[in-house]
Amino acid sequence: MSILKTSFTRRRSLALGATAVAVALAAAGCGGDGGSAPALPGNPGLGGDGVVAQSVYDAAPVATDADIPAGSTMDAIRKRGYLTVGGSLDAPLLSQQNPVTGTIEGFDADMAKLLAKYITGKPEVKTTTIGTQTREAMLQAKSVDVVFQTYTITPQRATQIAFAGPYLTSGLAVAVRKDDTTIKSVKDLAGKTVIVGANTPAVTALPSAAPGSKQVAFGTDPQAVQALLQNRGEAYVQDFTLLASNAKANPGMKVVGEPFTTESYGIGLNRDDAQFKEFINNWLKKIQADGTWAKVWEGTLGSVVEGGAPTPPALGSADGS
Questions:
Q1: What integer pLDDT is reported at residue 24 of this predicted model?
Q2: Which listed CATH number (3.60.60.10, 1.20.1250.20, 3.40.190.10, 3.90.550.10) goes with 172-256?
């Protein structure tokens, strides 16, 4: 996985809240609304507990009949009444199944549901859990309509499947203890002791991003989080989506500043369906322009990040999109 490099507007500062879930992310994500976790301080009406408000769904756009030609993939989905999605059930703030309600919650999950509403008029999805090694095969076989799983866009993958988007960009970011007010970005790490994961991109990226910083490496993400909370380093540099998950599970830490490397995530599609790709890109333009994208961000990933919603990535901006 990786991290959101975008221009964060600093209109708010969110406190972190505890959750019973502590799951380390590897490389995936996908859909939902609703939830039972206690609300956290955050965006009023947007679900500071990591859940997108029902009002966001109610106001979300629906495609017109003219947008859905007869015989198209969109037409088949509308007649079926739901969108089939390849994704995950264990990625906090991205695509995680709520153990109480059974709904799938998170940024990827909510995006999938909003796409379903755009096509069918209802946020109905059927999620199939898939591994990162089977995504291309499932799209080629049309076993699912789309893949929402923090699916990194690469030229090599684009020879096998198509990508709409990017709809999210990620990269390396900075986490600090919740009470730290001195570190606001990677630039503030110069000369400081920084926790990193052994053999992660942070090891090579930090020397130029934070000159003079001293690295303390740990073999696993849980070890690195514990080291941060125990004040064995002043910050922890890791992939944004992983740090956001950690912050959701650990009330003593928060994510600060802008990610300082870039990785673009796309919506995986069958490579032979250019019409469907254009349709989804047009939908992304609409939800970016009307503020829906920002509200989904604020209700999920943004619930543990200082600052407001980032600017969405430009469609077609990644090599392979």
A1: 29
A2: 3.40.190.10
